Amino acid sequence: MNTGAFFDSNMLIYVVSEDDAKAEMAEKLMSGGGTISVQVLNEFAWVSSRKLKKTIGEIRKALSAVRSVCQVVPVDIETHDLGLDIAERYKFTTYDSMLVAAAVRASCTVFYTEDLQHGQRIEGLTVRNPFIS
Where in the chain are the domains? Predict the structure, then answer.
């Protein structure tokens, strides 16, 4: 199931958003499979309930669809330690660093996000913002 792609939580959020262009791009990328971490599931659930006012049932349904096409990797102590190293080295937020660490540990080669610099290389991972023309 790992296609080498890791998806940030903002990619999942766009799938359920009212931004049709971003939703279409996110769906297209994710339909090919990829990887997310448990942190991505948690962030999606939080944003969906607090900001998008989705019910827990709606959130579960959306996450079930995501989990059917994406491998979910845990956030373990090794991921946490690598995330802290990445935060220190690259001056990223702790949350972004933990996602990058999960992607690196899952042997992904591309990290889809809007939150980091497009084209940046981190530990063998290339950051891609799919919404940049």
Answer: 5-128
Q: What is the pLDDT of residues 64-95, one digit of tens each?
A: 999 999 999 999 999 999 999 999 999 999 99
CATH H-level, domain 5-128: superfamily: 5'-nuclease (3.40.50.1010)
Exposure string over 107-122, b if 16+ CB within 10 A, otherwise e? ebebbbbbebeeeeeb
In 77-122 the beta strands, taken as DSSP E runs, fall at: 110-112, 121-122
Backbone angles phi, psi at 91, to 5 degrees: 60, 35
Predicted TM-score (pTM) of the model is 0.93
Query: Residue 5 contacts by C-beta under 8 Å, 6 or more apart in sequence?
Result: 29, 32, 33, 34, 35, 108, 109, 110, 112
Q: Are 119 and 48 in contact (CB under 8 A)?
A: no
